[in-house]
Design a protein that fits this description.
alpha/beta; Rossmann fold; 7-stranded parallel sheet; two-stranded antiparallel ribbon
Amino acid sequence: MEISNKVAVVTGGASGLGRAVCELLVASDARVAIFDLNAEAGEALASQLGERAIFALVDVTREDSVAAGIAKTMAAFGAIHVCVNAAGIADAAKTVSDGQPFPLDVWQKVIAVNLTGSFNVLRLAAVEMAKNTLPEGAEERGVIINVSSGAASDGQMGQAAYSASKAGIIGMTMPIARDLADLGIRCVAIAPGLFDTPMVAGIPKKVSEAIVNRMILFPRRMGAPAEIAMLVRSIVENSYINATCLHIDAGARMGAR
């Protein structure tokens, strides 16, 4: 898909991986709708990116909130061609700790945001993608990119909910791609390893260095959000990438803790 002048919805777009995606897409002449719960950060980023970006206060777990964000995007830009689901949380707890079970409300929250939230957004975005007219010579109407994680298959202690949610992202990739193939819409998952984002910003430097040295093959550093953004752009531009999960992790393999 030619990325210039296309419209992308990016969840979790106000920070971390999502922010990097928004910045690179706008730099590539796309237009971006930033979906996030952080209004201050989202509005600031939209202002920084200029007329090619808008912000929508969106809770991905709520149908009405996502529908309102989609409607705002359509009113501003008239179409949706790309959907990137980068919103996510990583609340952790052990299955049993000090004689107490994993809090069910934590499980439900993580699944609701990471898995159900991604599906909630992509299904409504896909409805609008299906309306896109195909210019002469064009093959596709849209592309959906969902952020999974290396934890989908390599989760650490305390990550049962997070790993389950990210494995679900991979598991739904093929059936969604099959559902949407006749509409000219692709669905792809990406599985990042260890990246330098606000989610890991609170880790002491000595601890993060030990993690890098123990778990990452090469290059021996945490990934930069811009490297995720470059992969997203490549997926958008390469129409033959579909119904798969691409790992971007420098050969990282997670330890048990």
